[in-house]
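Loading example: each entry is read as three labelled lines plus one structure line.
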Amino acid sequence: MKPWRQPGFWIPLLLILVGGGVALVVRKDTLREMTFTLLMYVALASSLNILMGYTGYVNFGHIVFFGLGGYTGFYFISRHGWHLVPAALVGGLTSALLAALLGLAVLRLRGAYFALATIGINEAARAFVNNFRPFGGPTGLFVNFAIYREYGGAPQALWLTYTLLLITTLVAVAVSYTVKNSRFGLGLLAIREDEDAAMVMGVRTPRAKTIAYVISAFFPGIIGTLFFFKNGNVEPGDAFRLHMSIEVLVMIMLGGNGTILGPVLGAAAYERLRGYLLTSPLFKSLHLAFAGLALLLIVLFIPAGLVGWLRRRFPVLRRWLE
Amino acid sequence: MILQVENVSKRFGGLQALQDVSFELPEGQILGLIGPNGAGKTTMFNVINGVYPPESGRVIFRGEEITGLPPYEVARRGLARAHQIVRPLNELTVRQNVMVGACYGRKGLSYAAAARVADQVLERVGLAERADQLAGSLNVAQKKRLELARALASHPYLLLLDEVLAGLNPTEVAAMLDLLRRIRDEGVTILMIEHVMQAVMNISDYVIVLDYGKKIAEGTPQEVANDPRVIEAYLGDPKLARCLLEGEESDACPPSEKGV
Amino acid sequence: MLAQILASLVDGILLGFVYGLAAMGLSLIWGVMRVINLSHGAIMALGMFGIYLTFTHLGLNPYLALLLLAPASLLFGFLVYGVAVHRIINAPYLSSLLATFAVNMMVIGIGTAVFTTSLYNVDFSLGTVRAGVLALPGTRLAAAAAAVLITAGLYLFLYRTRPGKAIRAVANNRAAAALMGIPPAQTLALSFGIGTLLAALAGGLITTFFPFTILSGSGYQSKSFVICVLGGLGNPLGALLGGLILGAMEGLIPIVLPVSWVPVVEFTLFVLILLIRPSGLLGART
């Protein structure tokens, strides 16, 4: 089962590489900014999918890892003058460590209780950072413009950030494929289907769930650092928007929970839809309402999402749409 | 002795589900665990494989005490279980279901090795052509076989089977019994809860009878069938008691149990 | 110092009655149908704007307007149930979370288009009531009294009327209740309607002493979660008590910590209670 021999593995990667590569070739700032947001959501959705899609644990606090990891990475850049790459890695590792600690406690809760706890964690984290002096409290942190000199100027810094995000996204999707088609991933899927039965079959559920949570948390920590570096500042309101967690959740549902391609397509579709609604004069003020309507229709009528529906409807496609 | 249960008691609120139950299971045998509804048979299984810890008593598996270990630790030591109420992982394929057993069982096989084992086991239980179907789409008899296949794929030393014959027609029962005998002959020890009485009497090397959480009898099928306490326990169903006593040709036996 | 503590405590507890009322709606819906209603906050915001519109445009007394708001929000709850919840009531819980969140997005989306996100307030006062060292705004006293009355009404309804008893039966065991001839769909719709009504009325009461925006509901929704977990999810009376506890905490914590630490304490407590005692400090009824 070599992954690179499977179309289900390279189709999503190729899509991301082509979609994300265009900006690198064309070198237009507006296109880069647009693709940055797109890639960011693809990576966030793919990483959340590792927990939610595979183990079935709904996490409303995915953005905590984006926020706290991002804050940590950004802190090292702005206060200690670190280079972006080690800072982003430290951001990712901080999130992963936090997930390991939280996971041991919170993953004992099942179903809606877990979902509720993650809402609480999200709110607690935001309120905490609001009060945490080293992170600048409610005003947050920002970088001095001089910091870009190390990268050869602000434009170069932004292009580097973009390239790093593209790589992170590719890795996140590759990891989500590898996990799903592995012994470990099989254990996660068993937990999703019936946790008690999985335990009886020998799956060490507490450990497996925690590892899935840690992997899922690592990527948003990196992405957060890249995003805040691109913006040049970070504040608690931006870093811990519960809303953003739910948007990422919606993207996964749209594309297909537990599939590889689903979160990629779902994130792209949702972002494009939002972009269209925001720019169209007819829908501008009502874009949120339309997004809500779209979500409701999906939940009610195609709960398996686009990719899930296609796989079920046309079994021949299963090899291609993983 | 592959399994020793020593003075196990388990209580749920006001209900004494198991009271001071002890028995031993020699390697390579089929042991039948019978008793009227509510006698504590499934609770006994739950205590053995770690779903509930007992209040008192010990469970020893292959010389090692496993009392109170979580189910996954018990499973990895080579003790597999097929549930009474089948629990297929519905959104996974039949092959993936069996692979879970192989990956996380006694041998902890790799993904690729587990896929090979799964195909062999599915061949054996007669589900090979369904391997790529979703488990949720199987019928009840097929789900029972899948449940067994999952347990077998874990290469267990001991197999706990909870009413694997219930709901099967006589032909299917005969085929299942045949399969169980072959599994035993390969050296796997089997502990089975069964309500299809003729079948359990027919296949078991040794039988233990529970009633109201207590062990009331044990012995060979003949000994147990003639034990007055066992007959009394089944008095709520005198026909069944007579059927037990007189053997499968008795006209007291319900039709589904004939010809087994 | 003691007078200040007493004043903060009473202030917080009065507010806690209103918090509790809102949380009761969330708790009832969870208890009866195992749905975490993520449109709760949006419905509270609707209640706020309902009172605002009748007060500023019709000049209606806010407490009288509550009598209009009650049937309107009940009907709105039926509508939400019928459109968004009924179809997925037996689906995995993610579906109901997302369906109610979709309703939240639609309400907030339309609300933002109509009212923008600027701050509104209902310019209404009942003067100040003095009792010893305490000076209490009349509107807070009235809101607490209204919350108590509504809670009493809810309990009379649940324990003394047929539909109320049906709701309790369904909360206890939906399948068994259906076998006894209780129509599940109507009962679930009614529960959702009442939950919506409680949220809207709580929102309406808040307008008499706090300014608000269309987005204000989400903060109160988070508080409702905390309260429900304090009081035990699915236990409406526990929710009222939980509301009082939260209100008292909000009154007292600022005396020892900067006020911005209040949510840190609240949500940390929330997660801890979920972990240690998921049935709530007071224990759930079911």
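The longest strand of chain B covers residues 15-25.
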